[in-house]
Amino acid sequence: MAILAKLSHSLTSIIKKTNLYYVAATIVLCCTFYVIGLWPQGGDVTSRQLSSTASILPTFPCNPSIKNTNPNYGSSISIDFTAHHTADDLVPLSSSARVNHYPSCNPELSEYTPCEDSKRSLNFDRNMLVYRERHCPEKNELLKCRIPAPFGYKPPFRWPQSRDSVWYANVPHKHLTVEKAGQNWVRFKGDRFTFPGGGTMFPRGADAYIDDIGKLIKLKDGSIRTAIDTGCGVASWGAYLLSRDILPISFAPKDTHEAQVQFALERGVPALIGILATNRLPYPARAFDMAHCSRCLIPWGKYDGLYLIEVDRILRPGGYWILSGPPVNWQGHWRGWNRTADDLKAEQDQIENVARSLCWKKVTQRGDLAIWQKPTNHVHCKINRKVFRKPPFCQEQDPDKAWYTKIDSCLSPLPEVSSVKDVAGGPLANWPERLTTVPPRIASSSIEGVTAEGFSEDTELWKKRVAHYKALDSQLAERGRYRNILDMNAWLGGFAAALVDDPVWVMNIVPTEAEVNTLGVIFERGLIGTYQSWCEAMSTYPRTYDFIHADSVFTLYQDRCEMEDILLEIDRVLRPQGSAIIRDDVDVLVNVKSILDGLQWESRMVDHEGGPHVREKLLIATKLYWTAPAPGQDKQ
Predict the structure, then answer these.
(1) Exposure winner among 14, 369, 567, 580, fewest CB in 10 A?
(2) Out of 72-81, 199-208, 500-509, 592-601, least confident range
(3) What whole-number distance in Å separates Cα of residue 234 and Cα of residue 177?
(4) d(C-alpha 337, C-alpha 325), whole Å
(5) What is the DSSP string of 453-514?
(6) Any residues with CB less than 8 A from the CB of 594 and at least 6 apart, and which?
(7) Pairing label, strands 574-585, 545-551
(8) What pTM does this model have?
(9) Strand pairing of 484-487 and 545-551?
(10) What are the DSSP calls for 185-250, one per residue?
(11) For residues 437 and 521, what is the distance between their CA atoms, to the nearest angstrom?
């Protein structure tokens, strides 16, 4: 027992001594590392260490305002946890990374419209006005230069003043002021054009003319929201519809009435260059609540009613077609129209017969106005085919397909209904509820991959995104700064819907290359748009838009066409001092930014609203102000 007690005492002594050694060693090591930690801050080792480290690590531009001005820096250091490297730092800014600058085009091309070029059109058939349809240049004919604004170009008047006034320098054409002098289309005085609101068939003005229409059909209850004006002149009818919460698209060809669509766009009215010839209009079926022609010179009764068949395709069930001018009320006007009474009566009879064959109902004819209504379904119309064998119903065709698609001489059938009282395709809510109500195409599961829940989520998502955009772009946030807006890849129209309370209109594009055709949904929301392939130029004049939004456009067109050609088109249709927000993958935006540098735009890349770890980024870009030189002056 004594031996065990002695052994236990010895072991206890050894353990205590060992613990003391460990404690001492730990104290020595802590002091050593503390000294080592202090030593580099006061010696020359720092610069040598940093220089050797810099040689193997990538450098980033840090905030130059953060400087070490404290002599006791090591003892009073403040740690900053905020991010100092943003998406913009990823962009190669060296000159070797930039493309060559794109030169200015000849000033004579200041109104160049590539797909409606008057010289190229001479190569095409004049029958049925084929030569005035879209005919785009071949790839080897594409311009690689920037379209200049005319000398003296000014930012347009802000809406609603722009409805009545346009700077002469922006559209230097007085032809219409002479040709239409007696019809109050447009007047010229001093440095600007003014638009009294007159038209060939509404000498009292477009406002009074629309009031006359409003006495015949309901224009104020929100049931009519989208409208199309065929052969629009300077778009006064559309301009005055806007104050009634009716959103029009006006179109006219690029013809002897020089710059009529350009005037419309400068006034801040939605418009496109277009014509009813052999191709379908670039809109889906059942798009418009109302179609209008005021002496538009379209031969409605010819070609077995082909053009009225096309109007029927784009009118929604229950939609209206309004006609004024020849041959309506021919009995009172035939002498002034320099046509025989028999000729005008025959034309009126042709139109009436075609309308009946389409199962349209003539609502009224009062004075110079005649109005027809499309049926809400085709239940009775299918029975009527026993009487009206022409046009037959189309078989196995897509009524929404409308990009270089020939007009069919057959009647596009409406969706089936279970009752004669049902609205084919589903009823539309009145405006403004229509904007956020689930569109019938989605409610009926006609749009692949889109549900009612997904639609609502998309609407909320774009509200947040647009709020973020306005925080990034002060001009977008400034009410009235922008008027004409283009969304190059609109999907369900959520971007436009989020801007509905701003004094803007948005042309929503559904690219023809998109996997899902959603343009019908956009129209069912009470918005407007068109089809477009961005491998080609748009049917519009240079400097049409104040702001352009491009969501994943360049990813969509990878391996389809050249990025620089799309950006040159954006440069063509955007006004000087206009802006764009381009959202896409960061690698794509690096290349986009380098080309925009070559176009002499200002641009900056910022992080996605979800934070810096999202690969998708935003490029905020502004086209700088520049114009063609003064006449006779050498280009600088």
Answers:
(1) 14
(2) 72-81
(3) 11
(4) 10
(5) HHHHHHHHHHHHHHHHHHHH-HHHHSTTS--EEEESS-TTTHHHHHTTTSS-EEEEEEETT-
(6) 91, 92, 97, 98, 99
(7) parallel
(8) 0.85
(9) parallel
(10) S-EEETTEEE----BTTBTT-HHHHHHHHHTTS--SSSS--EEEEES-TT-HHHHHHGGGT-EEEE
(11) 11
Q: Virtual CA dihedral for 333, 338, 342, 343, nearest 10 degrees?
A: -110
Type and span of the H or E element at 383 = helix 379-384
Check if the beta carbon of residue 361 is closer than 8 Å to that of residue 375: yes
Q: Which of 308, 322, 227 is nearest to 528 (CA)?
A: 227
Q: How does pLDDT run across 380-405, given as a tens digit for each residue? A: 999 888 787 889 999 988 999 999 99
Q: In 3D, which of 159, 149, 153 has the Cα closest to residue 481?
A: 159
Tally of CB atoms within 10 A around 1: 5
What 3-state DSSP class applies to 164? coil
Q: What is the mean pLDDT of residues 23-35?
A: 67
199: left (phi over 0), alpha (psi -120 to 50) or beta: beta
Q: Residue 493, Cβ neighbours under 10 Å: how many?
A: 29
Q: How far apart are CA 543 and CA 567, in angstroms?
A: 14
At residue 254, the pLDDT reads: 87
Residue 406 DSSP class: B
Q: What Rg, from alpha-carbon coordinates, does the chain have?
A: 33
Write out the H or E segment, with its range, that includes residue 282: none
Contact 38, 74 (CB under 8 A): yes
Name the strand (E) or helix (H) holding 22: helix 2-38
Between CA 290 and CA 292 the distance in angstroms is 7
Q: Name the DSSP letter for residue 41.
A: G
Amino acid at 295: R
For the chain, what is the largest distance between any 2 Cα atoms, rounded to a whole number of angstroms? 145
Q: How far apart are CA 214 and CA 195, in angstroms?
A: 22
Q: Could you give the C-alpha distances from 564 to 570, 597, 599, in angstroms and in order? A: 10, 12, 10
Task: Output the six-digit token pair for 545.
Answer: 């838009």
Cα gap 115→133, rounded to integer Å: 8
Determine the Cα–Cα distance for residues 149 and 573; give it in Å rounded to an integer: 11
User: How many residues does this entry show for the chain?
Assistant: 636
CA atoms of 620 and 604, how far apart (whole Å) = 5
Q: Is 340 helix (H, G, I), strand (E, B) or coil?
A: coil
Residue bearing tokens 């008057």:
118
* Predicted pLDDT at 18: 54
At residue 349, what is the residue type?
D
SS3 549: strand
State the DSSP H helix or E strand holding residue 332, giving kind and residue range, or none if neither.
Answer: helix 330-333
- Each residue's pLDDT tens digit, 222-240: 999 999 999 888 899 999 9
Ranking 33-37, 148-152, 325-329 by mean pLDDT, the lowest is 33-37
Over 50: is that where the pLDDT of 69 sits? no
